[in-house]
Specification:
CATH class of the largest domain: Alpha Beta
CATH topology of the largest domain: Phosphorylase Kinase, domain 1
Helix content: 40-55%
Strand content: 15-25%
Order of helices and strands: EHEEHH
Number of strands: 3
Strand order of the largest sheet: 1-3-2
Oligomer: single chain
Mean pLDDT: 84
């Protein structure tokens, strides 16, 4: 729970195994996250904040996103497959249209 805004959020971390790779891409990574923060779309998870830890043993990007209680699209498909549930073409069409 974000105590400043009172909404449920998710803490995410991306760790880079090679410092050299991270240094080469650091500016691009910052540009992408800056754009994602500005993105407002009802079908895309909202990115609230991000920061970069480059002074640690393993460089990483930490970012805070809105919480999606229904899980990811991958989790949805895994759950339907696990329970042998057939997804109708109408549902697939709806999902594809929301992504676009």
């Amino acid at each position: 729970m974000d105590t400043e805004e009172g909404v449920e959020v998710v803490w995410n971390e991306v760790r880079f195994s090679e410092r050299k790779f991270f240094k080469a891409k650091e500016e691009t990574i910052s540009e992408v996250f800056d754009r994602l923060i500005q993105l407002e779309h009802p079908n895309i998870v909202k990115l609230h904040k991000y920061w970069i830890h480059k002074d640690t043993d393993v460089p990483k990007v930490v970012f805070i996103t809105e919480y999606m209680s229904s899980g990811s699209l991958r989790q949805y498909f895994e759950k339907t497959k696990r329970h042998d549930i057939k997804i109708s073409l109408q549902v697939i069409d709806m999902i594809c249209n929301r992504i676009i």
